[in-house]
Amino acid sequence: MASSSRRSLYFDNAKFFLIFLVVFGHVISPLKGNDDFLLSIYSVIFLFHMPAFILISGYFSKGFQKKGYFLKTVEKILLPYLIFQMIYSIFYYLNGQESTLQFDLLQPHWTLWFLLSLFSWNVLLYFFARLKWFGLALAAVIGIAIGYFDHVGSYLSLSRTFVFFPYFLLGFLMEQKHFKLVKKVKHSTLIGFLVLLSTMFLICTFFPKDAIPWLLGDTSYANMGSKVITDGIIRASQYVVTIIVIYGFLSIVPSQGFKMTVIGQRTLYVYLLHGFIIKTIQTIVSDDTLSGISNHYLTLMVFSLGVCVLLGNYLIQKYTRPLIELRL
Known about the structure:
The protein has 14 helices and no strands.
């Protein structure tokens, strides 16, 4: 990470691994109920993969005060959200998932919550950035408090916006030296693997199966089964644990480039398009067949990697750029 190019490779590598986890997590999502080990893998992934993505997004949002930045976020984030929200509405109607064709731009479809929240996080920076580290504490308090409001959920992605905003703001506040420090710690890679393996062991052993909604951050405490004053302590603890796991992940990310590194530059394409593949397979393949492959872990991983390679291909980028980046 000594040079600009190596820093770029490091973050591209991180984004590649994270987008693989996004795809793999969505591939195994309908299968996790049939296999306890798969459920544990799913839980570990959803504990940190989106928070880590969000943290890196925040790190690259430092130019928010530059002239034209806001219009750029509208063009690169909000407009693709609106376009794909309509495309997904048509897609769900055609595959039979929805009985009527409706265009609801305020209730994000599936993965599209991230774009709507990402736009909101960039807007929130105009207030929170000036507060610096106090702003981070305030954002965490709001993320904890939002769970006590019963009606805050997926509408406008409000719940996720405030629950995950602390990670975005933390990434914004972090500097190059902080990421260098992650890699400079003696035996950092070993420590990183130990953190991830320990997390896997603890989740396999102690994590309640009905606690997965806590990892998604898309609804209130009441809608997750109970509403008690101590729920806020649980979310605060989740923030701490997630940051530790993100540290473990960042510690094992290599700084050198490899064949898949370029996919880290095209994660938006993979993110927006992989849902069409997964949802189509879920539509045409029977539940019994899907259930039968739930313990074929290597097959599921190879398939997920294949989706990433396919959608991260230059040709996919070339021909879908008008939709995703609004550029020919």
